[in-house]
Amino acid sequence: MSDPRIVVHRGGDLLAAATAARLVTALVDAQAARGEAHLVLTGGRTGTAVLEQLRDIPARDAVDWSRVELYWGDERFLPSGDPQRNETQAREALLDHVPVPAEHVHVVEASDGRFGDDPDAAAAAYAELLGEGFAFDVCLLGVGEEGHVASVFPDSPAVHERDRAVVAVRNCPKPPPTRVSLSLPAIRASREVWLMTTGAAKAGAVASALGGAGEVDLPAAGAVGTERTLWLLDTAAASKLPPR
Ligand SMILES: O=C1O[C@H](COP(=O)(O)O)[C@@H](O)[C@H](O)[C@H]1O
């Protein structure tokens, strides 16, 4: 597992623009090395801002979108098309604007989908879709005020998951209450994990995660990649880190 590397940008807009540029390079490099690029998307404000930036930069055409496979780190378990679904937001921000084949967009089933209102069945189906031995190239994650990543919240059943790659999450402290999420072991099956966050409200969680907190109290601390772990921050989110 890789040690975290911290990159601080002067503001949220710059962070989103720089991360979009970084993502182009990572996808192109993955395609050059292995033919395909497997990318995990995140919801949240920073993650969506990165996708909007990626949509708007000419360099996005350097990516061969026909050889990109897309997944989600977590999904809000709501009807298809609900504006709160991470899928809906990612489609609007990027996916409706790039030529990624529909069959490469691996969404978590919606609450009005194949399994009806059963998040456990949706989680099991997503785990089956991932199969054995998957390795994402890049896993994008936001970070919550209390240190959640994907929908793995502090001291929740999900943070203790060791066997399953995907779990149903109920009674989330942040709405909506029912979600489907990758577990920390699944996140750690990524070559690169990029934790992206902005704003002073995140500064405490960032400092604790990078200051040695345990993953049960602060799930972001347990989100590491096999080759690289990047913390992409703005100055406000980095404001409680010790001076470097
Ligand atoms: O609920 C969620 O929140 C986190 C963080 O969101 P942000 O708006 O504070 O950046 C996000 O990473 C996660 O995917 C999402 O479902």
TrEMBL record:
EC number assigned by the record: 3.1.1.31
First-level EC class: hydrolase
All copies of domain Glucosamine/galactosamine-6-phosphate isomerase, residue ranges: 14-231
Superkingdom to which the source organism belongs: Bacteria
GO molecular function: 6-phosphogluconolactonase activity
Record's keyword terms, sorted: Hydrolase
Pfam families to which the protein is assigned, alphabetical: Glucosamine_iso
UniProt pathway annotation: Carbohydrate degradation; pentose phosphate pathway; D-ribulose 5-phosphate from D-glucose 6-phosphate (oxidative stage): step 2/3
Catalytic activity: 6-phospho-D-glucono-1,5-lactone + H2O = 6-phospho-D-gluconate + H(+)
Keyword Zinc in annotation: no
The keyword Hydrolase appears for this protein: yes
Its biological purpose: Hydrolysis of 6-phosphogluconolactone to 6-phosphogluconate.
UniProt similarity note: Belongs to the glucosamine/galactosamine-6-phosphate isomerase family. 6-phosphogluconolactonase subfamily.
Name of the protein: 6-phosphogluconolactonase
Source species: Saccharothrix lopnurensis
